[in-house]
Design brief:
Isoleucyl-tRNA Synthetase, Domain 1, four-stranded antiparallel sheet, alpha/beta, 515 residues, six-stranded parallel sheet, 16 strands, binds 5'-O-[(L-methionyl)-sulphamoyl]adenosine
Length: 515
């Protein structure tokens, strides 16, 4: 059954070059987008850059340039990086674009017209790195430093417009309670619920002292708070409030906002409250992933364990892009904090090479050598065959379920586990011995046929995770996928008489230069 599927990443601050954190979120979103496209769903995948706010102003000042100069420069780096990493986003929104600025003005105008915005005064703490207001209790608990960066909090005291968040909190609470899948994973949902139940103040949504941003339409002396500006991107990019809102009609509500755990509160509370105030539906799922550590320690520039673009590019040059994707998704249960380790990266590559590459290679070599590259029909099944047949038959559904639950680690590992089963099956049935005995011809046919069906499923299952390698493997198997959806392909068997291609190692030996 085909559906629409709208997935977003956070829009990133272009105040400094992208790093592993951005790449991780974007690759995870890309994998989900690719799966849904293959599934036949009409898919829209959005990413972009969040260019306003005090953080941008300060980073620009430190470099002695205007904020707009910095954001133009770094937004281009993000855009080019996604091309380099073959990310399949359908759109890239910059919050400095007219379409977004106009969209945000319309949104704020509507909130003003509804009576959800009033002028007041704010006094309190602000985390400039996170662009986040911090309560006295939380500020005190972290000794008036940022819980994320450790940098001192700033004291703000100014006249500001407030959004009547407290008016919408009961409805947001009700929504989260009634929709167990809205905030995932479950542990994070509980954190949000308990913080919400403790009570939430109205939200300061304008800054009179900051000029780099979108002017409040009702009072241009004030600038819209960067998070109100940023969250709106998910609908301004679809043309909400503009003359051309066909995408909005087709794709809203979003199926998934994929984010890091540090920005969950904005997405699980502020954003649905804004949407309710606008008379729009909240997104279906806000999915928060964990934060990467390096060798078990928090990543930081000062510790020298920060995984930057240069490091990522070295890995890609050595192991290939697909290996990076596989390692990132395979390393941890999705949602938990993943860990970067060079040894684990090398291990993940070896797994692809020794398990997936190897089983495809063995199959193609045997069909080539014993049957001239023509896949024989299967004869009667024995117990050991039945086991593999069952694993192969249930595979497509297992993959479908894992994606439906956003279990990206499973999505990466299930095909590899099936490949491992094929290797075990070949080891146990010993086709290389059978081929010497003409009386075992039918038995050998069966083994070749069943192995081929399983390898076919493995490669199909890997398409969203290893787009290049899986497609290359399918080419070697000579099994084109064009014109069919993934569920249709999963339900297909390679026919007897199918001509297979020649094997070329999918995962070459790599020599990693010592660091
Ligand atoms: N601009 C806001 C998002 C606005 S969305 C309406 C923002 N930008 S960011 O560039 O700072 O971060 C973007 C994402 O990168 C966040 O989801 C954050 O969790 C993620 N990561 C930053 N460092 C990370 C790790 N070390 N590991 C994993 N992800 C991390 O926040």
């Amino acid at each position: 059954m085909s559906d629409t599927f709208y997935i977003t990443t956070p829009i990133y601050y272009p105040n400094a070059d992208p790093h592993l954190g951005h790449v991780y979120t974007t690759i995870a979103a890309d994998t989900l987008a690719r799966f849904h496209r293959l599934r036949g769903d009409e898919t829209w995948f959005l990413t972009g850059t969040d260019e306003h706010g005090i953080k941008m102003v300060k980073s620009a000042a430190a470099l002695n340039v205007e904020p707009g100069v910095l954001s133009d420069r770094v937004a281009a780096v993000f855009r080019d990086l996604w091309k380099e990493l073959k990310i399949t986003n359908d759109d890239f929104i910059r919050t400095t674009e007219p379409r977004h600025k106009v969209g945000v003005s319309r949104i704020v105008e509507k909130l003003v017209a509804n009576g959800d915005i009033y002028l007041g005064a704010y006094e309190g703490w602000y985390d400039e790195g996170q662009e986040e207001f911090v309560t006295e209790t939380d500020a005190k608990a972290h000794e008036y430093k940022s819980a994320i960066s450790g940098r001192p909090l700033t004291r703000y005291k100014e006249s500001t417009y407030f959004f009547k968040l407290s008016k919408y909190v009961p409805r947001v609470l009700e929504y989260i309670e009634a929709h167990p899948g809205f905030v995932q994973p479950e542990s994070r949902r509980n954190e949000v619920l308990s913080k919400l139940r403790a009570g939430v103040d109205d939200l300061s949504i304008s800054r009179a002292t900051l000029k780099w941003g979108i002017a409040m339409p009702n009072d241009p002396q004030h600038t819209v708070y960067v998070w109100i500006d940023a969250l709106s991107n998910y609908i301004t990019a679809l043309g909400h409030g503009s003359a051309d809102d066909a995408l909005m009609k087709k794709f809203w509500p979003a199926n998934v906002h994929l984010i890091g755990k540090d920005i969950l509160w904005f997405h699980a509370v502020y954003w649905p409250a804004m949407l309710l105030a606008l008379g729009l539906e909240p997104p279906r799922v806000v999915l928060a992933h964990g934060w990467f550590t390096t060798d078990g320690r928090k990543q930081s520039k000062s510790l020298g364990n920060f995984i930057d673009l240069e490091k990522l590019r070295t890995k890609i040059a050595t192991y290939g892009l697909d290996a990076l994707r596989y390692f990132l998704l395979r390393t941890t249960t999705f949602g938990a904090d993943p860990d970067w380790s060079d040894a684990d990266f090398a291990k993940a590559y070896k797994e692809l090479k020794n398990v997936v590459g190897n089983c495809l290679n063995r199959l193609l070599v045997m069909v080539g050598k014993y049957r001239n590259g023509v896949l024989p029909a299967a004869g009667p099944a024995e117990d050991i065959d039945r086991h593999l047949i069952e694993q192969t038959r249930g595979f497509g559904e297992q993959i479908e379920r894992a994606y439906a639950r956003f279990e990206l680690q499973q999505c990466a590992m299930l095909p590899v586990e099936l490949a491992r089963a094929v290797n075990g099956y070949i080891d146990a049935t010993e086709p290389f011995k059978l081929q010497k005995d003409p009386a075992k011809k039918e038995r050998l046919d069966t083994i070749l046929n069943l192995s081929a069906q399983a390898v076919y499923q493995v490669l199909l299952g890997l398409l969203p995770i290893l787009p290049e390698k899986a497609a290359e493997g399918l080419r070697q198997l000579n099994a084109p996928i064009e014109g069919k959806t993934l569920p249709q392909l999963f339900a297909t068997n390679l026919a007897a008489g199918h001509q297979t291609g020649a094997p070329h190692g999918l995962f070459p030996d790599v020599l990693e230069k010592p660091a």
